[in-house]
Amino acid sequence: MKNYFLLVAASLLTVATFGQNRNDVALYGSDNLNGTARYQSMSGAFGALGGDMSAINANPAGSAVFNNTVFTISATNYNVKNATNYFNGASDTDLNKFRINQIGGAMVFKNGNQNSPWKKFSMAFNYELSNNFENEYLAVGTGNTSIADFFVNNARGTTVDDLNTRIGESITEAYINIGRDLGYSAQQGFLGYQNFIIDPATPDNPDETNYISNATFSNGINQEQLVISSGSDNRYTLNFASQYEESLYLGVNFNFHGIERRRITQFDEFGYDSNSKLQYVQFDNDLFTYGNGFSFNLGAIAKLNDFMRLGASYQSPTWYNMTDELFQSINSDFFADPNDAEPSYSEATPNSTQFFPSYDIYIPGKYSGSLAFIFGRHGLISADYSYQDMSNAELRPSRDPFFADENAAISNEFQAVSTIRVGGEYRIKNLSLRGGYRYEGSPYKNEFTMGDLMGYSFGLGYNFGPTRFDLGFSQMQREYNVQLYDTGLTSTAAIDNKNTNITASITFNL
Question: What is the pLDDT, as a whole number, of residue 19?
């Protein structure tokens, strides 16, 4: 049985380097489509409409559009497909996850004072899965750079003496002490050195700070990296809204986020030359991130006439406070002596879960404008536009050296993101047919790390009077190019990502 030790790191540099970086900031800032079936089947184009529990996320004034108290519950089957290309290799993954993704209700209070311009008030509470982190991809191919270079780069600058265990000190104890005293890079160098993946450039010199790879290969090296993500960003919204006169709706949201995300990275490398000292490496990392966040929304909807409505909303920045836990394991096969017939096995792996100090992620605010055309009882067409400048995103505290570097990269590499959503609904008596389209630009200027998002949706609903049943289908596609590691082995895997949601909702009119 493994014994687990706890480490409270003194420096944020450790968690920052392996944990959250600009790519994670882009993920948390993505405009995911979740919520009720009606909302998803119209691609979320509800900023000027309201009258749906998920519509209050687009515009908090939307709850005042309800004529009576309502309650909605939604469930979604999430399907994630990834087609991954890595050098000469290709692989496909297919992941399904079923979740209750939305529960909420709105209470409507009509003003008994007929002379007051404030016609009614509404108060709503809504739980919604804001961001789904379920994902899985496999990069398989013949690379041209070894994982040994990752350990060489991290070990560089640390003496061989510092990468050795002390008398009576276990691998786990040394791993903990090096992480506490010297930081993440030295800790990773320690793993590489203790497992014979790297050696000092000058043997038998305890003060040597340069290292060489023990991997030798002529025609590339076989590599497999499986990345499995799970968890979600759960948003709990408290909403207040009111109707002024007959044509103006105003609202405010207070959003509380609970976030959990686990990312397991399993890496294998093999196929070295027969005379290579190194013959096999397995390197696994299990990163668990959790925390909370807060944001607020302000919004208004104006009925210009019976045919046209305008909407405007502001979503404040989202302030996340996060904590990371990291567990690493490693083993290798190597020739201790060139004359050995069979390689030796090393598992100098730490039985240690590291707990790191909390840090903050700042996601910039968003401005949205909406326009809707209502065709009486026959249907509607709606369009939303949102603007968010992701170049202002930050990891905090910014005084941390790694966070400072990442923030500089965010400022230089990120850009403003425009999102367009268009949706329509056609009614045939109690039956509603719906469809939609959405586009979200890449937060990266070069659009290489993360491409533009494009998606479409459709669905239907049937109004039974006291209840309404809705079914929605939405699908989006986006391309990514993901580095395997931040240094040394920086080869990228090209991923074609396709997410498909099938959602069912039932609404009770009370």
Answer: 58
Q: 368-407 pLDDT, tens per residue?
A: 999 999 999 899 999 999 999 999 999 999 888 888 988 9
On whether residue 434 sits in a domain, the answer given is no
In the block, residue with structure tokens 């850009």: 415
320 contacts 360 by C-beta, under 8 angstroms: yes
pLDDT in tens, 336-360: 887 787 899 999 999 888 888 899 9
Enter the DSSP assignment of 504: E
> Would you say 54 and 43 are in contact if contact means Cβ atoms under 8 Å apart?
no
The pTM score is 0.91
35 within a domain of the structure (yes/no)? yes
Find out whether 386 and 48 touch, Cβ atoms under 8 Å: no
Return d(Cα 489, Cα 484) in angstroms, integer: 6
Per the structure, the complete domain to which residue 337 belongs is given by 5-384+391-429+443-449+474-509
Is residue 278 in some structural domain?
Answer: yes
Question: Which long-range contacts link 372-379 to residues 24+ away (Cβ below 8 Å)?
Answer: 372/48, 372/49, 372/308, 372/309, 372/311, 373/307, 373/308, 373/309, 374/306, 374/307, 374/308, 374/309, 375/307, 376/306, 377/427, 378/426, 378/427, 379/424, 379/425, 379/426, 379/427, 379/432
Domain total of the chain: 1
Mean of all residue pLDDT scores within the chain: 92
Beta-carbon contacts of residue 403 (< 8 Å; ≥ 6 apart): 12, 16, 359, 394, 395, 396, 397
Evaluate whether residue 436 is within a structural domain.
no
